[in-house]
Amino acid sequence: MESRIVGQTVPLVELKLRAGETVYTQSGGLMYQTEGIKMNTNAKGGVMRSLGRMFTGESIFMAHYTAEKDGAIVAFSSTVPGSIVSINLNGNNELIIQKGSFLCAENNVETKVVFTKRFSAGLFGGEGFILQKATGQGILFLEIDGDYIEKTLAPGEVLKVDSGNVVAFESSVSYEIETIKGLGNIFLGGEGLFLTKLTGPGKVILQSQNFQDFANRLIPFMPSSNN
To the nearest 10°, the Cα dihedral for 115, 107, 65, 147? Predict the structure, then answer.
């Protein structure tokens, strides 16, 4: 498989496949395809794994695109302004992905739901306590809102991030939700009640845009039926 990122504002990833190669995305992720691509939609990984994806905000069903000839092309687009990053899984490394960040992957890459150790903290943590773990061997493409930022944490090094700005991190990085301390900070700080605490070692991928915060800022300007 060959890949290239096209565009800068709302980019897409274009994949050139060899005969028999398959990639998959959540339903609705396709932008375009050439002749020689066969589509098949199914509950990848079985019904229970598919229901787990529903909790992460992803589609229950995954669309699979298989090349019937060499050089067939399929392309998947991001949904908001930002960027697309590719991650190579070699069978030994694992990646934990925030909901909404998965764009597409080769068929040998598997995703399943994982939970934080503290269920209650995740439940009230605003951004959701359910994440996805990507394993296997192949290339995974992630959608980044805004700009791509990468941090490599040393053993025991801590990084506290607004949950909406976390895209993914290696499974060696521990993850928990931390409550902001101080009533003044909670009610006057304007930063929400929770932060995501990431502890190394391992690589962390962040995004500069928290699209949920951006959408919330637009709500006061939206017309309402009372006007």
Answer: 60
pTM of the model: 0.80
For the cut 50, the answer to whether the pLDDT of residue 86 exceeds it is: yes
Q: Is residue 164 part of a domain?
A: yes
Q: What is the mean pLDDT of residues 59-82?
A: 91
Q: How many CB atoms lie within 10 A of CB 47?
A: 9
- Provide the domain count of the chain: 1
* Nearest Cα to Cα of residue 35 among 12, 55, 19, 59: 19
Most confident of 72-81, 150-159, 176-185, 212-221: 150-159
| Residues 6+ positions from 159 with CB-CB distance below 8 Å | 151, 153, 197, 198, 199, 200, 204
Q: Residue 32's domain spans which residues?
A: 2-221
Residue 191 lies in a domain: yes
Binned at pLDDT 50, 70 and 90, residue 178 comes out as confident
d(CA 173, CA 158) in angstroms, rounded, equals 10
